[in-house]
Amino acid sequence: MRVLVTGGTGFLGGSLVERLVSRGDKVRVLVRRTSDTAFLRSLGVEMAEGDVTDRASVMEACQGVEIVYHAAAFSSDWGAYDHFHAVNVEGTQNVIDACREARIQRLVHVSTQSVVFAFDDHHGTDESYPIPPRHRDFYSATKAEAERRVLDAHGGALFTTAIRPHIIWGPRDTKFLPRIEALARKGQLVLVGGGRSLCSISYIDNVVDALLLGAERDAAGGEAFFIVDREPVEVRHFVGRLCEAVGAPLPTLSVPYRLAFGSAIALEWVWRLLGRQTPPPISRYGVALLSRNTVFRWEKAHRLLGYTPGVEFQEGMRRLMEWRARNPPRD
User: Fold this and answer.
1) 153-194 pLDDT, tens per residue?
2) Residue-range domains of the chain with CATH
3) What does the CA dihedral 243, 248, 253, 259 come to, rounded to 10 degrees?
4) Which of 48, 58, 203, 300 could make a disulfide contact with 98, Cβ separation 3.0–4.6 Å?
5) Is 139 a catalytic site residue?
Protein backbone atom coordinates (compact mmCIF):
# COMPACT_ATOMS: atom_id res chain seq x y z
CA MET A 1 0.00 0.00 0.00
CA ARG A 2 1.28 3.49 -0.88
CA VAL A 3 0.71 5.78 2.09
CA LEU A 4 1.28 9.43 3.04
CA VAL A 5 1.57 10.46 6.70
CA THR A 6 1.45 14.07 7.84
CA GLY A 7 2.83 14.81 11.29
CA GLY A 8 5.19 11.86 11.00
CA THR A 9 7.90 13.49 13.14
CA GLY A 10 5.54 13.63 16.13
CA PHE A 11 4.86 11.03 18.80
CA LEU A 12 1.78 9.44 17.23
CA GLY A 13 2.83 10.02 13.63
CA GLY A 14 6.23 8.44 14.17
CA SER A 15 4.72 5.37 15.82
CA LEU A 16 2.25 5.04 12.96
CA VAL A 17 5.03 5.30 10.36
CA GLU A 18 7.03 2.62 12.18
CA ARG A 19 4.06 0.25 12.14
CA LEU A 20 3.30 0.91 8.47
CA VAL A 21 6.92 0.21 7.50
CA SER A 22 6.99 -2.97 9.57
CA ARG A 23 4.00 -4.39 7.70
CA GLY A 24 5.50 -3.58 4.31
CA ASP A 25 3.71 -0.42 3.22
CA LYS A 26 5.50 2.12 1.04
CA VAL A 27 5.48 5.23 3.21
CA ARG A 28 5.98 8.89 2.35
CA VAL A 29 6.06 11.50 5.13
CA LEU A 30 5.40 15.22 4.75
CA VAL A 31 8.09 16.94 6.86
CA ARG A 32 8.98 20.53 7.54
CA ARG A 33 12.50 21.70 6.77
CA THR A 34 13.18 22.36 10.47
CA SER A 35 11.90 19.01 11.75
CA ASP A 36 14.08 16.36 13.38
CA THR A 37 13.90 13.51 10.87
CA ALA A 38 16.51 11.20 12.39
CA PHE A 39 13.96 8.56 13.40
CA LEU A 40 12.28 8.63 10.00
CA ARG A 41 15.62 8.32 8.25
CA SER A 42 16.37 5.24 10.35
CA LEU A 43 13.16 3.69 9.00
CA GLY A 44 14.13 4.41 5.40
CA VAL A 45 10.91 6.15 4.44
CA GLU A 46 10.52 8.69 1.65
CA MET A 47 10.36 12.27 2.90
CA ALA A 48 8.59 15.07 1.08
CA GLU A 49 9.57 18.52 2.28
CA GLY A 50 6.63 20.77 2.99
CA ASP A 51 3.99 21.84 5.47
CA VAL A 52 0.23 21.36 5.69
CA THR A 53 -0.15 25.15 5.53
CA ASP A 54 1.65 25.12 2.17
CA ARG A 55 -1.03 23.98 -0.25
CA ALA A 56 1.37 23.27 -3.11
CA SER A 57 3.60 21.00 -1.03
CA VAL A 58 0.58 19.03 0.21
CA MET A 59 -0.67 18.60 -3.35
CA GLU A 60 2.71 17.31 -4.47
CA ALA A 61 3.08 14.94 -1.49
CA CYS A 62 -0.29 13.34 -2.21
CA GLN A 63 0.57 12.33 -5.75
CA GLY A 64 0.70 8.57 -6.27
CA VAL A 65 -0.54 7.44 -2.84
CA GLU A 66 -3.70 5.56 -1.91
CA ILE A 67 -4.19 6.41 1.77
CA VAL A 68 -3.46 9.57 3.75
CA TYR A 69 -3.12 9.57 7.53
CA HIS A 70 -3.40 13.18 8.65
CA ALA A 71 -1.73 13.50 12.06
CA ALA A 72 -0.21 16.97 11.71
CA ALA A 73 -1.69 19.56 14.07
CA PHE A 74 -0.82 22.43 16.34
CA SER A 75 -1.51 20.78 19.68
CA SER A 76 -1.02 23.16 22.58
CA ASP A 77 -2.81 24.91 25.40
CA TRP A 78 -1.24 28.23 24.42
CA GLY A 79 -0.80 30.23 21.25
CA ALA A 80 -2.41 32.70 18.86
CA TYR A 81 -5.74 31.81 17.30
CA ASP A 82 -4.45 32.59 13.81
CA HIS A 83 -1.77 29.93 14.15
CA PHE A 84 -4.21 27.31 15.47
CA HIS A 85 -6.58 28.07 12.59
CA ALA A 86 -3.84 28.07 9.94
CA VAL A 87 -2.51 24.65 10.92
CA ASN A 88 -5.55 22.81 12.22
CA VAL A 89 -8.29 24.15 9.94
CA GLU A 90 -6.65 25.53 6.81
CA GLY A 91 -4.00 22.81 6.88
CA THR A 92 -6.67 20.12 7.10
CA GLN A 93 -8.61 21.71 4.25
CA ASN A 94 -5.43 21.63 2.16
CA VAL A 95 -5.14 17.90 2.87
CA ILE A 96 -8.80 17.30 1.93
CA ASP A 97 -8.43 19.25 -1.32
CA ALA A 98 -5.21 17.43 -2.19
CA CYS A 99 -6.86 14.07 -1.56
CA ARG A 100 -9.66 14.94 -3.93
CA GLU A 101 -7.36 16.24 -6.64
CA ALA A 102 -5.02 13.24 -6.40
CA ARG A 103 -7.97 10.80 -6.21
CA ILE A 104 -6.86 9.42 -2.86
CA GLN A 105 -9.02 6.51 -1.77
CA ARG A 106 -9.02 7.06 2.00
CA LEU A 107 -8.26 9.84 4.45
CA VAL A 108 -7.89 8.98 8.14
CA HIS A 109 -7.84 12.09 10.31
CA VAL A 110 -6.36 12.26 13.81
CA SER A 111 -8.92 14.20 15.80
CA THR A 112 -9.20 14.46 19.59
CA GLN A 113 -11.67 14.10 22.42
CA SER A 114 -11.28 17.85 22.85
CA VAL A 115 -13.78 18.41 20.03
CA VAL A 116 -16.52 17.79 22.63
CA PHE A 117 -14.66 19.28 25.62
CA ALA A 118 -15.81 22.65 26.93
CA PHE A 119 -14.16 22.26 30.37
CA ASP A 120 -17.10 20.13 31.54
CA ASP A 121 -17.37 16.65 33.04
CA HIS A 122 -17.80 13.57 30.87
CA HIS A 123 -18.98 10.36 32.51
CA GLY A 124 -18.94 7.74 29.74
CA THR A 125 -19.57 10.04 26.78
CA ASP A 126 -20.02 8.38 23.39
CA GLU A 127 -20.04 9.72 19.83
CA SER A 128 -23.70 10.76 20.02
CA TYR A 129 -22.64 13.63 22.28
CA PRO A 130 -22.96 16.85 20.25
CA ILE A 131 -20.00 19.07 19.53
CA PRO A 132 -20.60 22.22 21.60
CA PRO A 133 -21.47 25.39 19.68
CA ARG A 134 -18.70 27.27 21.46
CA HIS A 135 -15.39 26.01 22.86
CA ARG A 136 -13.30 27.64 25.57
CA ASP A 137 -9.88 27.22 23.99
CA PHE A 138 -8.43 27.62 20.51
CA TYR A 139 -7.15 24.06 20.20
CA SER A 140 -10.53 22.42 20.81
CA ALA A 141 -12.37 24.91 18.60
CA THR A 142 -10.07 24.50 15.60
CA LYS A 143 -9.82 20.72 15.91
CA ALA A 144 -13.63 20.52 16.01
CA GLU A 145 -13.86 22.54 12.80
CA ALA A 146 -11.17 20.40 11.17
CA GLU A 147 -13.02 17.20 12.07
CA ARG A 148 -16.27 18.60 10.71
CA ARG A 149 -14.63 19.36 7.38
CA VAL A 150 -13.08 15.91 7.15
CA LEU A 151 -16.35 14.10 7.83
CA ASP A 152 -18.29 16.40 5.51
CA ALA A 153 -15.80 15.48 2.76
CA HIS A 154 -16.76 11.81 2.92
CA GLY A 155 -18.50 10.59 -0.17
CA GLY A 156 -17.95 9.89 -3.82
CA ALA A 157 -14.39 8.79 -4.48
CA LEU A 158 -13.07 9.87 -1.06
CA PHE A 159 -13.56 7.81 2.10
CA THR A 160 -12.91 9.73 5.35
CA THR A 161 -12.95 8.92 9.03
CA ALA A 162 -11.84 10.61 12.27
CA ILE A 163 -10.10 8.99 15.24
CA ARG A 164 -10.45 10.72 18.63
CA PRO A 165 -7.81 9.63 21.18
CA HIS A 166 -7.47 11.16 24.64
CA ILE A 167 -4.11 11.76 26.39
CA ILE A 168 -1.88 9.58 24.22
CA TRP A 169 0.87 7.98 26.30
CA GLY A 170 3.64 5.42 26.04
CA PRO A 171 7.26 5.04 24.90
CA ARG A 172 8.78 7.94 22.91
CA ASP A 173 6.18 10.42 24.15
CA THR A 174 7.47 13.87 23.20
CA LYS A 175 4.80 16.06 24.81
CA PHE A 176 2.74 14.90 27.79
CA LEU A 177 5.34 12.81 29.62
CA PRO A 178 8.22 15.30 29.27
CA ARG A 179 5.99 18.06 30.63
CA ILE A 180 4.93 15.97 33.62
CA GLU A 181 8.53 14.96 34.29
CA ALA A 182 9.87 18.51 34.04
CA LEU A 183 7.29 19.84 36.49
CA ALA A 184 7.88 16.93 38.89
CA ARG A 185 11.65 17.45 38.96
CA LYS A 186 11.16 21.16 39.69
CA GLY A 187 8.71 20.38 42.50
CA GLN A 188 5.97 22.16 40.55
CA LEU A 189 3.73 19.20 39.75
CA VAL A 190 0.50 19.97 41.58
CA LEU A 191 -2.67 17.90 41.54
CA VAL A 192 -6.01 19.66 41.28
CA GLY A 193 -8.67 18.55 43.72
CA GLY A 194 -6.43 15.74 44.91
CA GLY A 195 -6.27 14.24 41.42
CA ARG A 196 -9.38 12.19 42.14
CA SER A 197 -11.08 12.76 38.81
CA LEU A 198 -11.34 9.88 36.36
CA CYS A 199 -9.90 10.14 32.85
CA SER A 200 -9.76 7.93 29.82
CA ILE A 201 -6.28 7.56 28.35
CA SER A 202 -4.99 6.19 25.04
CA TYR A 203 -1.90 3.99 24.88
CA ILE A 204 0.10 4.72 21.75
CA ASP A 205 -0.13 1.23 20.21
CA ASN A 206 -3.90 1.15 20.75
CA VAL A 207 -4.28 4.42 18.84
CA VAL A 208 -2.14 3.14 15.97
CA ASP A 209 -4.32 0.01 15.84
CA ALA A 210 -7.38 2.20 15.51
CA LEU A 211 -5.86 4.34 12.75
CA LEU A 212 -5.11 1.25 10.69
CA LEU A 213 -8.62 -0.10 11.25
CA GLY A 214 -10.06 3.26 10.25
CA ALA A 215 -8.42 2.88 6.85
CA GLU A 216 -9.48 -0.73 6.40
CA ARG A 217 -13.11 -0.94 7.52
CA ASP A 218 -15.84 0.36 5.22
CA ALA A 219 -18.09 0.96 8.23
CA ALA A 220 -15.71 3.72 9.31
CA GLY A 221 -16.73 5.95 6.41
CA GLY A 222 -17.94 9.38 7.50
CA GLU A 223 -17.71 8.42 11.18
CA ALA A 224 -15.79 9.64 14.23
CA PHE A 225 -14.58 7.27 16.97
CA PHE A 226 -13.36 7.76 20.52
CA ILE A 227 -10.27 5.60 20.92
CA VAL A 228 -9.32 5.00 24.53
CA ASP A 229 -7.90 2.26 26.72
CA ARG A 230 -10.16 -0.34 28.26
CA GLU A 231 -10.70 1.35 31.63
CA PRO A 232 -10.36 4.94 32.89
CA VAL A 233 -7.89 5.75 35.66
CA GLU A 234 -7.71 8.29 38.44
CA VAL A 235 -5.54 11.24 37.46
CA ARG A 236 -3.43 10.92 40.62
CA HIS A 237 -2.77 7.24 39.93
CA PHE A 238 -1.88 7.86 36.27
CA VAL A 239 0.40 10.80 37.00
CA GLY A 240 2.02 8.93 39.89
CA ARG A 241 2.79 5.91 37.75
CA LEU A 242 4.25 8.12 35.02
CA CYS A 243 6.53 9.73 37.60
CA GLU A 244 7.61 6.30 38.83
CA ALA A 245 8.32 5.20 35.25
CA VAL A 246 10.78 8.05 34.71
CA GLY A 247 12.16 8.14 38.25
CA ALA A 248 10.71 11.57 39.04
CA PRO A 249 9.38 12.67 42.46
CA LEU A 250 5.72 11.90 43.07
CA PRO A 251 3.37 14.88 43.36
CA THR A 252 2.58 15.77 46.96
CA LEU A 253 0.76 19.08 46.59
CA SER A 254 -2.89 19.61 45.74
CA VAL A 255 -4.97 22.75 45.26
CA PRO A 256 -8.74 23.22 44.94
CA TYR A 257 -10.14 23.52 41.44
CA ARG A 258 -11.38 27.10 41.87
CA LEU A 259 -7.99 28.28 43.08
CA ALA A 260 -6.16 26.48 40.26
CA PHE A 261 -8.52 27.73 37.56
CA GLY A 262 -8.47 31.28 38.89
CA SER A 263 -4.68 31.24 38.96
CA ALA A 264 -4.61 29.98 35.38
CA ILE A 265 -6.88 32.84 34.25
CA ALA A 266 -4.61 35.38 35.96
CA LEU A 267 -1.45 33.89 34.50
CA GLU A 268 -2.89 33.80 31.00
CA TRP A 269 -3.77 37.50 31.22
CA VAL A 270 -0.29 38.36 32.45
CA TRP A 271 1.32 36.30 29.68
CA ARG A 272 -0.78 38.06 27.04
CA LEU A 273 0.00 41.51 28.44
CA LEU A 274 3.70 40.67 28.36
CA GLY A 275 3.42 39.20 24.88
CA ARG A 276 5.09 35.96 25.88
CA GLN A 277 5.23 33.17 23.31
CA THR A 278 6.02 30.34 25.73
CA PRO A 279 3.09 28.80 27.65
CA PRO A 280 2.39 29.91 31.22
CA PRO A 281 3.07 27.36 34.00
CA ILE A 282 -0.63 26.48 34.09
CA SER A 283 -3.49 27.14 31.69
CA ARG A 284 -7.27 26.98 31.89
CA TYR A 285 -7.29 24.07 29.45
CA GLY A 286 -4.65 22.15 31.40
CA VAL A 287 -6.41 22.65 34.72
CA ALA A 288 -9.76 21.60 33.26
CA LEU A 289 -8.32 18.58 31.48
CA LEU A 290 -6.75 17.14 34.64
CA SER A 291 -9.48 18.09 37.10
CA ARG A 292 -12.69 17.23 35.29
CA ASN A 293 -13.92 13.69 34.73
CA THR A 294 -13.16 12.88 31.10
CA VAL A 295 -14.37 9.34 30.53
CA PHE A 296 -15.24 8.27 26.99
CA ARG A 297 -16.63 5.05 25.57
CA TRP A 298 -15.01 2.91 22.89
CA GLU A 299 -17.93 0.57 22.10
CA LYS A 300 -18.68 2.20 18.74
CA ALA A 301 -15.11 1.59 17.61
CA HIS A 302 -15.42 -2.01 18.75
CA ARG A 303 -18.71 -2.48 16.92
CA LEU A 304 -17.82 -0.80 13.61
CA LEU A 305 -14.03 -1.10 13.45
CA GLY A 306 -13.39 -4.26 15.43
CA TYR A 307 -11.22 -2.19 17.79
CA THR A 308 -10.31 -3.64 21.17
CA PRO A 309 -7.64 -2.03 23.34
CA GLY A 310 -4.80 -4.51 22.90
CA VAL A 311 -2.47 -3.08 25.54
CA GLU A 312 -3.74 -2.87 29.11
CA PHE A 313 -2.61 -0.21 31.59
CA GLN A 314 -0.14 -2.39 33.51
CA GLU A 315 1.44 -3.73 30.33
CA GLY A 316 1.71 -0.24 28.92
CA MET A 317 3.46 0.96 32.06
CA ARG A 318 5.85 -1.99 31.90
CA ARG A 319 6.75 -1.13 28.31
CA LEU A 320 7.19 2.54 29.20
CA MET A 321 9.54 1.71 32.07
CA GLU A 322 11.59 -0.63 29.89
CA TRP A 323 11.86 2.01 27.19
CA ARG A 324 12.97 4.64 29.69
CA ALA A 325 15.59 2.29 31.13
CA ARG A 326 17.06 1.95 27.63
CA ASN A 327 16.73 5.68 26.93
CA PRO A 328 17.72 7.66 30.02
CA PRO A 329 17.46 11.46 29.81
CA ARG A 330 20.45 13.36 28.52
CA ASP A 331 22.22 15.66 30.94
Assistant:
1) 999 899 999 999 999 999 999 888 998 998 899 888 899 999
2) 2-175+200-230+295-310 (3.40.50.720)
3) -70
4) 58
5) yes
